[in-house]
């Protein structure tokens, strides 16, 4: 279904001008920092302010490990998680109904050039990661901090956006290009070992040494577009006292633009 939707969407775009350089780069790497593109400052600041306020309110953004069934689903004893580790805003459409307006025509054209088709808005996630003690992460994964692919997304892709200033201390999103990800598969990366190995069974340091390794760091509004099905990626644990606030907008290809 996913591949068919991609091909149908690309056929519908024939005759529309694209940025050929951006198209070729993205087709190869399957991620980009979208250099030269930025959100309108006033509009983004409005969205950012409301998102951070929601993340700071546990009523609007509870920790699923504390208040939901996430711990049970992952086989983590309830007593292991004693403080908030990851918050998700539960009603993003009501709190941020104008997220799609962040994508002006220039950014829409850049994304369209990357994927070779029109696209539709699928989901919006607002999340905050906290520090997790090493003795817990040695046994359990709570923040998607182990290298992985997003297999349930056959044709979906996501725009990751920093809501706060992010440095290496704040647990930024890490990603590898599709070619490097395929190379690591040939070298023995095993997605089935995620439950026991943060590196899919590969030697420590091998993934971090790949040339394409990219971290989503920078000021608020810094962004990265990625097909996470084809690119190995992970979040990194924030240091003690640090947090990571991020907005994730997910899309899928379609025959006509739809950002509703």
Write structural notes for this entry.
The radius of gyration is 18 Å and the shape is globular. By secondary structure, the protein is of the alpha+beta class. The strands form two sheets. The chain has a six-stranded antiparallel sheet with strand order 1-7-4-9-3-2. The model has no long low-confidence stretch (mean pLDDT 92). Helix 2 crosses helix 7. The chain is 28% helix and 18% strand. The longest helix is centred in the first third of the chain and has 15 residues, at 41-55.
The fraction of residues in strands falls at 15-25%
N-to-C SSE string, H for helix and E for strand: HHEHHHEHHEHEEHEEEE
How many strands?
A: 9
C-alpha end-to-end distance: 22 Å
Individual helix count: 9
Helix content: 25-40%
Computed Rg = 18 Å
Structural class: alpha+beta
Strand order of the largest sheet: 1-7-4-9-3-2
Low-confidence stretches: none
Q: State the shape.
A: globular
- What is the assembly state of the chains in this entry? single chain
- Mean pLDDT comes to 92
Task: Describe the main β-sheet briefly.
Answer: 6 strands, antiparallel
């Amino acid at each position: 279904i996913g591949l068919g939707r991609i091909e149908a969407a690309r056929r519908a775009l024939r005759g529309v001008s694209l940025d050929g350089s951006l198209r070729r780069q993205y087709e190869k790497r399957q991620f980009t920092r979208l250099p030269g593109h930025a959100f309108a400052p006033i509009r983004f600041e409005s969205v950012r302010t409301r998102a951070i306020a929601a993340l700071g309110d546990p009523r609007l953004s509870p920790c699923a490990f504390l208040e939901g069934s996430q711990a049970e689903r992952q086989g983590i004893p309830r007593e292991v998680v004693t403080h908030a580790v990851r918050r998700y805003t539960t009603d993003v459409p009501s709190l941020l109904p104008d997220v799609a307006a962040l994508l002006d025509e220039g950014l829409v054209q850049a994304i369209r050039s990357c994927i070779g088709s029109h696209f539709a808005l699928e989901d919006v996630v607002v999340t905050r990661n906290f520090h997790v003690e090493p003795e817990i992460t040695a046994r359990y994964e709570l923040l998607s901090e182990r290298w992985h692919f997003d297999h349930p997304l056959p044709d979906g892709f996501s725009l990751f956006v920093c809501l706060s200033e992010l440095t290496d201390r704040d647990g930024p999103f890490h990603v590898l290009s599709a070619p490097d990800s395929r190379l690591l598969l040939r070298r023995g990366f095993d997605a089935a070992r995620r439950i026991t190995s943060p590196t899919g069974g590969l030697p420590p340091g091998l993934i971090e040494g790949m040339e394409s390794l990219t971290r989503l760091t920078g000021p608020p509004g810094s962004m990265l577009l990625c097909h996470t099905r084809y690119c190995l990626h992970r979040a990194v644990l924030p240091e003690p006292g640090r947090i990571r606030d991020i907005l994730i907008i997910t899309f899928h290809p379609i025959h006509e633009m739809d950002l509703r």
